[in-house]
Amino acid sequence: MTDIGCDPYVEWNEGASRLKASRGSDGNQVGGGRRGAIEGFSVESRRRLMFKIACVERDARLPLFITQTFPGEFPSVQEAKWELKLFHERLKYSFPSAGLIWKIEPQDRGAAHFHSLAWGVGLDEMMEWVPKAWYEIAGQGDIKHLNFHQGKYSPYRHCVEQVRSFRGVWAYASKYLGKTFEVGSWKGVGRYWGIINRENIPFGILRVETVRVKVLNDVLRYQRRFAHLRAFGRGMTIFCDADQWVERLKITP
Q: pLDDT tens, 102-133?
């Protein structure tokens, strides 16, 4: 990784979908530093999550999509996150090759609801394992909780599904992982999304190249047209076939 300092640079992940172009630092920090209290899944939180998903290699093995909820008598959000942590610890023990990106959100009834994209595990084994493991942790002896996650109540589907295409990754991410919301009655939730076993998620190798101002302006101009934006500030990040853009715009030496 290049020490970019104040120089213009382009940043991307090999084989992935994120392409960032920046004029570099002007020496005056804007934002950054310690974040304040987290009070919901904001537009900025969504942006960070979607950019992280965009760092996954486009031709990697497609992930599974996992949905987890609670029975009629549901715990507080703090307790729910603790039970999710227990689930993740059990998952890491049973499937050391697994890697997840997870998100929490409130259901209309107030219960916590979890969505995850999971790599490094097979569909059949997870369809068998997830409902039972989650029931043992969060089901409170309510057999309906197990049956629901096993997809036994029409029209609800099994809690583990195979994403069928790369486009499907974005469809799930936008529809389920990308929904923003305000904190409402939830207090002290902490993080609303996270990563488990980062090393098992097929993130493309991070590349950063300092570039001449002319090259930077060319990249920004193409990004602006691609994103249908009229103006840009000190930089821009878009979702695209990053490798194709790097080659086309001759970003690397």
A: 998 888 888 899 999 999 999 999 999 999 99
CATH class for the region spanning 64-200: alpha beta
Sheet harboring 160-162: ordered strands across? 160-162, 64-68, 112-119, 99-106, 193-196
Burial environment of residue 207 by CB neighbours within 10 A (0 to 12, 13 to 18, 19 or more): middle
Q: What's the CA angle centered on 210, arms 207 and 211, to 5 degrees? A: 120
What does 145-189 look like in DSSP terms, one character per residue?
HHHHHTT-STTPPPSEEE--SHHHHHHHIIIIIT--EE-TT--S-
Domain boundaries defined on the chain: 64-200
Greatest Cα pair distance in the chain: 64
Ramachandran class of 79: left when φ > 0, alpha when ψ lies in -120 to 50, beta otherwise: alpha
List Cβ neighbours of 158 (8 Å cut-off, separation of 6 or more).
127, 131, 149, 150, 151
The predicted-structure confidence for 136-154, as pLDDT tens digits, reads as follows: 999 999 999 999 999 999 8
- Count of CB atoms within 10 A of residue 33's CB? 6
